[in-house]
Request: fold
Amino acid sequence: MSKQDYSNRELSWLDFNGRVLQEAKDKNNPLLERFKFLGIFSNNRDEFFRVRVATLNRMRRHKKINPQEKKALTKTILEIQAKVAEQEDEYTMVYHSLIAEAKENSIFLINEKELNKEQQLFVKEYFKSTVREHIFPLILGNSLRYKNFKDKSVYLAVEMIDSLKKQKPRYALLEIPTSILPRFVSLPNHAGENYLMFLEDIVRFNLHEIFAILGYDIFNAYLIKFTRDAELDIDNDVLKSFAEIISESLKKRKKGPTVRFVYDREISPPLLKIVLHTLGIKSDDKLRGGGRYHNMKDFMNFPVKNQRLEYEELTPILHPDLPAHKSKFSIIKEKDVLLHFPYHSFKSMTDLVWEASIDPKVRAIKMTFYRVSRQSNMMKALINAARNGVKVTVYMELQARFDEEDNIYWTEKLQDEGVRIIPNIAGFKVHSKLILIRRKERGKNVFYANISTGNYHEASARVYSDTSLLTSDVAICNDVNNVFYLFETKYQHPEFQYLKVSPLGSRQFLCEKIDREIINVKSNITSYITIKANNLVDVDIINKLYEAADAGVKISLIIRGICVLKKDNPHPNIDAFGIVDRYLEHGRIFIFGNAGHPEYYISSADIMHRNLDHRIEVICPIKDKSLQQELQDIIDIQKKDNVKARHLQAGQINEYKADQTSPKFQSQIETYQYLLAKIQR
Reply:
């Protein structure tokens, strides 16, 4: 089968974001959580344009593209535009329904025309004391061109009118300072009521304070935003360090081409014309008329707090095998431990590195980082280890999209503290999540390792669902050490006993495991495959899965995001579904039936060409029988979900996998209860 037989990956991603919008629409979710999903949907869509649509535009502009390829790309872009417009209509409807429901719960998001006298006085004073100093209008002229606008900001396009008609209308642009001030401002409230206002509406109310000195007395203001191409242009100057190259590329990103321009459709034509001229925007396919407000991603941090309107808190569980006041090394030496975030507390991981930083037996720590918090306790523990004489080595991936600045910050900070940083190589990302700790025990080197599906990032570990193995297994630890050897020797290929490492052997490994299931099913042996991942895109692997399904292998696909399956009828031997809920499903788990002796693996890799062929990824076996059962139990819980699971095959996409005859079964809640029960036994 060719690519043409499968769903388009971009449209499949929009289907995923449609599932996020379903969560904003779902009245079974608490109101304030639905506002957050609305923000997530908006943020996701912005990144989609910054990355995927920008890439399609680059490909379409490429000089060497042939007419047929250009036609196909144009068709895809038009399909994207149609689907985005369709989702925008639904999004607007959901937004207005949430605003109405908020009023029923005494939460009022009002504009500058709805203020009472007390609120008017507050807004005037707030503007003068807090906002005014951050407002710097750009007066627009016929020949002015200015391209240094920020793509994560919103701007007010202002029309100034003299009611006496002594002077012609003038126009201006001003940035709403949301990077400095909160987007939502709380107004004076009465008991039990919450009044809020968008920051731009506070500016609208005070436009006369800004422009009256110019002799105008009528002001109309319309919100605009635009999205830039976020792909980095990597310089190949060998005289520069890779950190310098990335830093310079980040500066270029801030001036990247515009891929989308959104404006209030009520804007006057003369004002729109001069704004487009100023921004240098000509192509109609970049323009979209929208509503009064943009950048709804800020709803992710909606400031209202009300326990009745939020999820019931699920307090992270301290893993029963990792008590707070016992050495982690003494435990891991005796048994493997499997952590499931965010159900388990990530503190166990930071405590492990903190313990290593003060343990006199620890000689060395090696870690990979893909995304890391600016306030990372993990980093602070590594710095402490270096100060205590531990040899600390870090591979910091500087090309982690949108986290480059934080990663450069920590690279410089670590180097200042004497931590050895393994140099990056342009065009080759390290996406594996690994820790290796060496201790000197009775005169011998003993290793302890962590292999994780998710980042060492305290904030994301509270909302991303990931699986993490702690082990002292000699063979696996040796393999982890060899992965670091791979980095340190500029990708010379060592031998691996248990780990499968991209791009050296992951693709072959997956194909061999699928082929074995095909052979088994043809011998009348019950055969099955379970793949849980963020994205399923790689055509060769998907072809192999269809070959297995055609032979009779039962296949379960639990895919959160892009799932590029056949465009025609669903396959009877494939159960493909995705779960979108309060936590972001991020773990990768592979299970193969193996003739009644099932094999279990966790991985940092999605089933994508880039992960299998162009990144350093790790697939790690789970060898302990009890941990295998734990993984199987969690997968079985997800398969039973009839609340948050949606079908992903043709003709059923985004339909809820509901079973009206059974009680409601929500897998993330049930997973938490399952893991909680383990500490109560």
Observations:
- DSSP finds 18 helices and 26 strands in the chain.
- The chain has three domains: 3-309, 328-493, 502-680.
- The mean pLDDT is 89.
- Residues 67-104 form the longest helix (38 residues).
